[in-house]
Structure formats: structure tokens, C-alpha cells
Amino acid sequence: MTLQLTVQMAITGVTLGLIYGLIAIGLTLIFGVMRIIQYAHGEIYMLGAYFLYYWFDKWHLPYWAGFVMSAVVIFFFGAGLQLLLFRPLHGKDMLYSLAVSLALIFIISSAGIIAFGAVIRGISSFVTGQIRIAGAEWTFERMVIAGISLVLIIALWFLLQRTKIGLAMRAVAEDPETSSLQGINNRRIHWVAMGLGSALSAMAGCLMGTLMFIVPSMGFLATIKAFMIVIMGGLGSVPGALVGGFVIGFIDSFLTTLATSELAYIIGFVTIFVILVFKPSGLFGQAWE
Amino acid sequence: MRRALLFVAGLLVLLIAFGACSRGTPSGMIQDKVIKIGGAVPLTGAVAYWGICTDQAWKDGAEVINARGGVKVGNQNYKLQIITYDHKGSTPDAQTVTKRLIEQDKVKYIYNQAAAGTIGMLEISEPAKVLTSVACWGYLEHYGKDFPYHFRSEMSDYEQGFAYMPFVKTKYPGIKKAAFLGPDDKDGYDCYYSYQRLMKYYDVQDLGVEYFQWETTDFYPLVTKTLQKKPDMIITSPTPPGITASIVKAARELGFKGPVVSPGASETKTILEVCGEQADGVVLPVTLETPQTQSQKDLAERFKKRFGEFNLYAGNLSWWVYALAEAFTVAGTFEDTTKVADALEDVVLKDTYVGTARYAGEGAYGIKRQGVYDCYTMLIEDQKGFLADVRFPELPPGY
Fold first, then answer.
1. Which residues of chain A have pLDDT under 70?
2. Closest Cα in chain A to B214
3. A112: closest CA among A42, A28, A198?
4. Which of B228, B284, B285, B217 is nearest to B251 (CA)?
5. Chain B: nearest CA to A196, how far in angstroms?
6. What range does the domain containing B350 cover?
7. Could you report how far apart the first and last alpha carbons of chain A are, in Å?
8. Contact assignment for A221 to B217 by CB distance below 8 Å
9. In a shared domain, residues B258 and B349
10. Hey, are the CB atoms on B45 and A217 less than 8 Å from each other?
11. A221 contacts B270? CB cut-off 8 A
């Protein structure tokens, strides 16, 4: 194994880890605050990507403004879903919200085919060029996307740890009844968390859509990755999502390059099983009832 | 009194109208004799794009044929009626919808799309002697003498190879070594087998294969591994445009400069959108984006009007329904699927969207059921896709 190959695998692993982490943090936030397993997380991710596609490639408006607008629009979309669909189910068995989110997968992806067509599309790159490190290639596009993912993950952690609304979210996540007695408006926190989780998912969709391609069925793959990472890192944990993203990213990069993609998949899941055996709540998760 | 007269008059009008309707509707239905054709295609799910295109091709063709007065079978003209169900690309769903088409809708002709759906369908359709026309490149053990009603109407990557390899070898004379990337499933394995035979035939060294999972989110690791073998050319199959674009983008970013051939991608737009300036050197066989003849232009316009879009892939499949209609006429029956199959294998169509189209492959597969047609090869250069080559596959002797 040459130095060039090792560096290339490491660069790919870091980039993938950060992007995977970004896909997963929205999901973990929604579960952490509301105990809802949002299976339609990938479909929200798809909507975010399509918003940017139309904004940038069809309407020829600035890329980064579209990235922000996608997050804003999907924030309100997610908040709307919470108010209309999930709030009436609050306090009921988790299976109800599970059924709603499963139905949302089919509704949103089928509506996506009707609205956008089944044709695969691509969001044009916002930057070209690359640098070479020890013979390995790192494109500016991947570098920027990895950097933004890192910034967004840190920003969410900062929001949760260092701001008043973050404190309220953590309080609601910890004990909704007590937080309510302390004057926190749980309903407000719920729709804010759902909106924020959706916005993060939309931004991840924008970045991955730029890196890869977009199609109405793209959400399925994102959901699988997000769940692998969230379960490994611990449901509701932002650092867990980041660490889980890195673990899966490095497994994907190193094992696929050195062995096969099948082995990367197997080892990815085996790693999750091993972690769950020794720490059932995941690396950084707390035990949920 | 006035109200009573108005009531009676109104009642009479209603009775006359009802009488007219009750005479007109059934007779109109009886007059239109129909041949039912079933569509078992994925309209939702991961391979919906292929299924929707297939369905559009059949529906458009049926409309055109019906507008001309239908299909002449013996002394009678018949309209084509298309009945479509979604099998979502799954084998069990394909079995269910095939049963429904045969037992409930009484169809004797089914079109299908994608390998999983085709395998499910064949278990039901072959014993029932239902003639099927499909797009499926892999699962070669489900094709041949033991499946006499099964027509593989879409030209597979193997046949395409006898058109694009002569072009590639002329355009890039320095090519000596090639590597293959394909999905980690039966389709991918069979396409690799086709590729191996092609490379041997054209004296190009095969550097081996890398298989990817359909769930792959980033092709960097796999392409990094492929490039370690130092290929002059990469062939990827069967990969849709989006995955092809992701492979091309990764390959270019990692420093690969040779041609990338993708027999299954069939459109340059996505590749240009995703790859931008890195798309140069992509070769796409069976991709006609700039219709040449009047009938090709008419078909493209008709699809846009009828479906709001024209997907090239639908154009590639558009000849199937015309071939079947021609076979009905030649066979003089649509009831006897054996006679229709015998007639269909000899149908030769000119001036279709894919030029001259016919069935072949008796030497290669033991039965003449493989669609072969003019291969329109697109090449991307200077960030533009253009028609670089048109030729009927130069099939080997004994094919």
C-alpha cells in the first residue's frame, strides 16, 4: 500500500464521515427531542436537493442563496409536518408516529416522481479545481462540502449546549413534563426541533446532490446511512452522529478500496452489532425506555 | 298545470336521452375489437425511470397504430388496448401482476422491464404460452430455447459492443487495457461476462472487475481501487445515467483521462450536469439525442405532447409494439402465440427511432429472440454531447 493510496483513502474517509454525520444529525435531533423515528428523513433530504436544483440550475440564482433558502423553506415544511401530523400523536405509542412517517415516505417520493419526473438530474458544481496531497487528490468541492458539514455539526452542538433554546430542547428531551412545569413551551420546542432537523437534512441533500446526483428515490439510501450512523452513535446524540459518520466513512473508504464493497457493508453492520452488544444505547446515547 | 307539462316534457327528454345512450354505448364497444396487451413494469421504486419509459413507448405506439385504424389480422382490424400494472421492480410483485394480467385481464402479450420483474414474470408467462417482450440483459439462464415465448427486445451490452468497440478502437487507438465496473448483482455479473467476451474478441486486456452496491453513496473508494490497475478505458454496465455520472466524476477527479463507456446510461444530460467539464471522453452507445430522420423527429415531438417529456430510453424501446403488430398481421392471428412468436422473429422494421430493428442471436443463444438495431453512439467532448457514430452491430460470424 503506497503513501498516495493511504492518503487518498484517509481524505475520502474524512470527507465521507463528515457528510454522513451531517445526514444523521437531523434525524438524531428529531428523535432526541420528540422520540419520533422520522423514517421520511431521506425524503426531506431529497426535497432540499430538488429545491437547490431548481434554484441554481433552472432559475440560475446564486448557489449559496439557494442552499440557505432550501434550509429555510424545508424548516417550515418540517415544522408544518409536526403541527399537522405528529403533534396529534404526541404522548401516544411510538408506533403511530412510525406509521405516519412510513406513509410520508411513499407520499413524498411518489409526489416527487409526479412533480420532478423520474429522470436523474445533477446540481452543477459551485467550484472547480483540486489540490494534491502526497499524490492524492482532494477537490475543492469535496473540501468545501466537508468543511460546511463540519461547521453545521459544530453549530448544532453549540446551539444545543450554549443557547437558551438549546437548553430548552435538552430539557424537553430529558423530561418533557418537568420542562413544561418549568415554563418551557413543549409544543414550540417540538416544531422548532422538527423544523431544524428537516433543515439540516435539506442542507445535507443539497451538498450530496451537488456531489452525486438527484432523483426522487434518493432519500432511501440517505435514510439507511443515517440510521446506521444514529444507531451506532446513539439516538439523540450529536457527537454520536459525528463519530458514527466517521466510523462508517472510514470503513467505506478503506475496506472498499483495499477489499470489496461487500466487505465494507458487512463490517459496517458488524461494527454496529458489536457496539450495541457492549453498549446497547450506542456510543454516546442514553438509555430510552 | 304548467308545472305538470314541464315535468312530463323533461321526463320525455330524459327518456329519449337514456334510450340513445343505452343503444349507443354497447354497440360502440362491440364494434371496436381489441387485442389486449399487458404491461408489467416498475412505475415506482428505484427502477421506475426504466418502467415509465417502457410504458410510454407502448402506449404511444398503440395510440399511433389505433389512430391508423388498428392492426389488420386476417380480414379484421383490431385496436390495441394497453393494461398496465406496477411491479415496483420486485420479483413477487411481478408474479402477482402477471397472474392478474393473464387470468383476470386475459392478455396473451406482456411487456416487462428490469431483471427482477422479468424473472418473476417468466415463471408465470412461459407455462401459459404468453409472449413477452422485455428489457433484461442479465439472467442468461432464463433466456434461450427453454423460453420460446420470451423476446429480449432491448439490445444488450453484448450486442452493443459490436458497434461501440469498433468505434472506440478507431477513436482511441492506444487502448490496450480495460477495467469494468458493474452492480453487485446477477445483472452486473452477466454484463461482466459479456464484457469479457468482447474484450477477448477485440484483443483488449481485461484488468478485472469491481462490483458496487446499488446503495453506494460515493464511488471514490471503488474508483480509487479501479485506477490502481492503470486501465486505458473503463466500461461500466448496466449503470443508469446518475451512477455513470458519479463514476465518471470520481474517475476524472482522481486523474483518469481515458474514455469511459456506459452502454446503459443512454443520455448525456445528466452526465453533463453532474460532471461538467469532467464529462469529456464519455461514450454512450444506443443514445440518439439529436433525431436525424423525420420519423425520429416526429416521435420525439409526439412524446413531448403526449407525456410532457421525451426520454431517449423510451425512444429506444418504441419499435417493440410496431414489431408485435407486424407479427400479428404476418401470422394472421393473435390467438395463437406460437404462430405470432414465429412471425415476430422474422420481422424487420426500417425507419424506427433506432433505425433498422430486428431479432437475431440464434447462434449465440440458440433462439432468435434478441433485439438488434442500429447503434447511435454519443460522445461527449468540449462539454457537449454529439452523435459520433451510427452503425448496425458488426456481429461475429455465427451469431
1. 286-289
2. A221
3. A42
4. B228
5. 24
6. 34-155+292-360
7. 47
8. yes
9. no
10. yes
11. no
Q: What confidence score (pLDDT) does residue B19 get?
A: 43
* A chain contacts of residue B242, beta-carbon cutoff 8 Å: 120, 122, 212-213, 215
Q: What local confidence, expressed as pLDDT, does residue A281 receive?
A: 87
Q: Do A261 and B276 touch (CB under 8 A)?
A: no
* Band (B7; pLDDT cuts 50, 70, 90): low
Q: Compute the distance between CA of residue B341 and CA of residue B294 in angstroms, rounded to an integer.
A: 30
Decide: B74 and B29 in contact? Cβ < 8 Å.
no
What are the phi and psi torsion angles at B348 (to 5°)? Answer: -125, 120
**For the domain A3-120+131-278, what is the CATH code?**
1.10.3470
- Helix, strand or coil for residue A74? helix
Task: For residues A160 and B58, give the distance between their C-alpha atoms in angstroms, rounded to a whole number.
Answer: 55
Q: Which of A16, A128, A217 sits opposite B46 (nearest CB)?
A: A217
- How many CA atoms lie less than 13 Å away from A143 in the CB half-sphere? 12
In this structure, are B356 and B263 located in the same domain? no
Residue of A nearest to B184 (CA): A262
CA closest to B42 among chain A residues: A118
Q: Are A205 and A222 in contact (CB under 8 A)?
A: yes
As a 3-state breakdown, chain A gives helix, strand, coil percent values, each rounded to 5, of: 75, 5, 20
Nine cell digits for residue A12: 475520502
Global confidence as pTM: 0.81
Residue whose cell numbers read 483521462: B257
Whether B150 and B167 share a structural domain? no
Residue in B109, B142, B105, B114 with CA at minimum distance from that of residue B128: B109
Q: Both B141 and B210 in a single domain? A: no
Contact call for residues A63 and A269 (beta carbons, < 8 A): no
Nearest CA to CA, how far is B267 from chain A (Å)? Answer: 10
How many residue pairs from chains A and B have C-beta atoms closer than 8 A?
110
- B254 contacts A8? CB cut-off 8 A: yes
ipTM of this predicted structure: 0.81
**Nearest CB partner across the interface for A124, out of B243, B254, B273:** B273
Q: What are the residue boundaries of the structural domains of chain A, listed by start? A: 3-120+131-278
